[in-house]
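Work Package 3 (structural annotation) set out to generate three-dimensional models for the target panel prioritized at the project kickoff. During this period the team completed the workflow that converts sequence records into discrete structure tokens, so that structures can be stored uniformly alongside our sequence database. As a representative example, we reproduce one entry of 117 residues exactly as it appears in the project archive.
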Amino acid sequence: MKQRYLCQWNDIAEGDSRGFQLAGQGSSQPLSVLAVKKAGQLFLYHNLCPHAYIPLEWVEHEFLTTDKSLIQCANHGALFTIDGGHCVAGPCAGQKLRALTYIRDNDEIYLAPEVLE
């Protein structure tokens, strides 16, 4: 399976988040992705709360707490670290978001092929 284009590196501002919906291929389901850029690094996760299996945001591209220090589930208030996706508060404490691997080719970001298998 080929890697899938996600966005340009600069499409996500430093300290901000963005969501992506990728159509499924063949029999695969669509994939909802959340991305956060922090300290010059990009963190990608499956946009799915491990507690209720629903998307984390209720406003498009809004995944972070007001101080932008944590990822927040808008439905249950669960809080996740940006750099590891670990739930540090809320009904899924001790669980974590599913990290997604990406490839940076120049300034283009692609989901790694294994993410879509």
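The chain has a mean pLDDT of 91.
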